[in-house]
Write a structure and sequence with these properties.
Elements: H1 10-20, H2 26-41, H3 44-53, H4 58-90, H5 102-105, H6 109-134, H7 137-150, H8 164-190, H9 196-209, H10 211-246, H11 248-281
Helix pairs in contact: 1-10, 1-11, 2-4, 2-11, 3-4, 4-6, 4-8, 6-8, 6-9, 8-9, 8-11, 10-11
Length: 297
């Protein structure tokens, strides 16, 4: 299956599509996002206490990483199922929130697990490249930071290791590439039904062809996130003021739903943006605005 190279402004279009996603079948979209959010947070209920209790233990840290990796693979069909819900809503087909579990029932479970494993391999390769460039000092620094936080000794946090800036720069480039791979390959394997390895190959090729619109997306998304955080902070301050005037219970009643709404909105926008990216780069030509396609000689 071929992949398209889009123009740089396509990144803005993807974000706009993500913001507008909830307008079509909001019940299924936000209900599905709730189920995915709960599902992805469940492993943290196990790994976070372990991380805080045994952070200085290298073997325990390895166990935590193993649990996280297994959870990531087992949750891949759930996340792919949300893509199925989005695709149905965008095309006006009937769908509901519980359809996020559809890839557990269709026999696509193995395909999605292989996809999840493939993404873990890509993450490991990216991490290996970063460590090959800057060395392992950054790992020791990270472990020391976690230990200081777990023991409530912020003064024990070591200074940044040599090569930290280079690691951040290289990691940012690799993160941009892998984020594109994930979005494109997820659509290919979950909606288009491509084999996992073929989907990952499509994701890699599609990301390499579209690094510029991906960069535009990240830049615009960063500023949009700043505005979002500012509005959220102002609302929290307003609710805190009301809480002082009326009672702390009012602030809790107002702020907790606000936090939940914020996370759901971010989830919907994030996956909607990823879906729009996949649709433009890999899906049927009839779904793509031809003016957004970059002409490649």
């Amino acid at each position: 299956m071929s992949t398209r190279a889009m123009g740089p402004l396509a990144g803005i279009r993807w974000l706009k599509s993500g913001i507008n996603l909830g307008r079509t079948n909001a019940k299924a979209i936000f209900g599905g996002a709730t189920l995915v959010l709960v599902g992805t947070l469940l492993p943290s209920a196990i790994t976070y206490p372990l991380k805080m209790a045994m952070v200085a233990d290298t073997k325990a840290f390895g166990i935590i990483m193993l649990i996280s990796m297994l959870a990531g693979m087992l949750l891949a069909p759930l996340i792919g199922g949300f893509f199925v819900v989005i695709d149905a809503a965008e095309h006006g087909r009937p769908t509901k929130a519980t359809d996020v579990f559809t890839l557990y029932r269709r026999g696509a479970f193995a395909r999605m697990v292989v996809f999840g494993f493939g993404m873990l391999v890509l993450y490991a390769i990216a991490m290996g490249l970063v460590l090959a460039v800057v060395g392992t000092d950054i790992v020791h620094w990270y472990m020391a930071v976690l230990a200081a936080q777990a023991n409530h000794h912020p003064e024990a946090i070591p200074s940044l290791p040599a090569g930290f800036g280079a690691a951040m720069a290289l990691g940012s480039v690799l993160w941009l590439l892998i984020a594109g791979v994930y979005a494109i390959a997820l659509g290919q394997v979950a909606v288009a039904g491509r084999p996992a390895l073929d989907a990952l190959r499509d994701g890699l090729l599609g990301s390499l062809k579209n690094l510029l619109p991906l960069l535009v997306l990240v830049m615009v998304g960063f500023f949009a996130m700043l505005v979002f955080i500012l509005v959220f902070a102002l609302l929290v301050m307003l609710f805190a003021l009301l809480g002082k005037l009326v009672g702390t219970w009012l602030m809790i009643v107002l702020v907790v739903p606000l936090y939940i709404a914020m996370f759901l909105a971010l989830y919907v926008v994030m996956f909607g943006t990823m879906y729009a990216m996949w649709r433009d780069i890999c899906a049927d030509d009839r779904q793509v605005d031809p003016t957004m396609i970059q002409v490649v000689a």
